[in-house]
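Before relying on records like the one below, remember that each one covers exactly one chain. Contacts with other chains, cofactors or solvent are not represented anywhere in the record.
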Amino acid sequence: MKRVLTRIMATGSVVLLAASLLAAGPAPMDSVQLLSAGRMNDLIGALTNRSDAESYNLLSRAYYATEQWEPAIRNGERAVSLRADDSQYHLWLGRAYGQKAAEIGNPLSAAGLARKAKGEFERAVELNPHNVSARSDLSEYYVQAPAIMGGGIAKALNQASEVQSLDPAAADWIRAIASVKEKKYGDAESNFRAAITHAQNPAQYWIALASLYRQRGRLDDMQSAISSALAQPNRPSVTYYDAAGELLQAGRDFPAAVQYVKTYLSSGALVEEAPAFRAHYLLGQIYEKSGDKANAEAEYQASLSLASGFGRARKALDQLH
């Protein structure tokens, strides 16, 4: 469930605009739009020679999106050093530490990075107790990490209590992932359904429920939940991206998955958590699983044209040949 849940957690993140980006190159909003659109080559090229906190933060997020953890960490640390009181900067640095820890082979190094991630998430919450995204990321850390590294279900449930008055649906989501960790799948389903009831926009929680059903092998229920997500009158366009990802992982209904990604790409409402280069990569994966190597290759190339540093697309393209 982690891929979908991670994106859901980040959906509500506040995108900060800095007046300091007034020198040559794109204006602040232009930079944010490049990030949301997934035009990472353009964004990195525009901001590489900047030395202000917001430029470093945007660069960190660009490298994070393309899974280049070292430059993501380096630029995130620079942003935090220049603006240590910014909750969002600490949140993004914590995410970079966490993802690097998840992929590193050395257990001792991974443990050190994980502790850094925890520290950044906790600092983000300390600086802004109303930052639901930071509390959600911290909660997931508590759920996933062993007690020796500061984890614990009780700590996550305490965060859910803190979030309850800020965002009841997010509190339900935290309780749901805690239940999944404890293999209390009936409770997790109930909590996801509570989130659906409490959310102003329940589409993302229908997708989270679909992900749970997929993990449990309840594929008909998964597809029903996806249909419910897409039937929501105020669904964000990214719901189509998430729905396609669930179908790909389930190995079901590839034609619908293809159409969902195309709908998202043409929506004009791309978001940072599902940038265009990742959507093209997802579409390439679906085509490849369908046996359509020509279209898969075209989509991987489209992904790399926007984000040449995205190693997943490069590897997938190489493996086609």
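The longest helix spans residues 107-127.
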